[in-house]
Amino acid sequence: MECKKESNLERCNCSYEPCSRKGVCCDCIKYHVKMRQLPACVFPDDAERTYDRSFDHFARLVQAKRI
Q: What Pfam families does UniProt report for this protein, alphabetically (predicted)?
């Protein structure tokens, strides 16, 4: 399957600049799930910039209806 990195980068809101997985969604998801986290793209921009990608942070945002 072809990776559409360039078009993925247009929608990627990851603010971690040295990230080698930007635009390669399958690698990003695999990495974050292994770390018991979610990728940046599931968080609003202001929440993403905290770098707290935990399931708990996501759940708090959902409970507060920010997502």
A: DUF6485
pTM of the model: 0.85
Residue 10 included in any domain: no
Say yes or no to pLDDT of 66 above 90: no
C-alpha dist (Å) from residue 1 to 4, 26, 63: 9, 11, 36
Which residues, listed in sequence order, are joined to residue 54 by a DSSP beta bridge?
37
Give the range of the structural domain holding residue 54, as residue numbers without chain letter: 36-67
Residue 64 lies in a domain: yes
User: Cα 62 to chain center, whole Å?
Assistant: 15
* Structural domains in the chain (count): 1
Q: What is the pLDDT of residues 35-50, one digit of tens each?
A: 999 999 999 999 999 9
Percentage helix, strand, coil for the chain under 3-state DSSP, each rounded to 5: 50, 5, 50
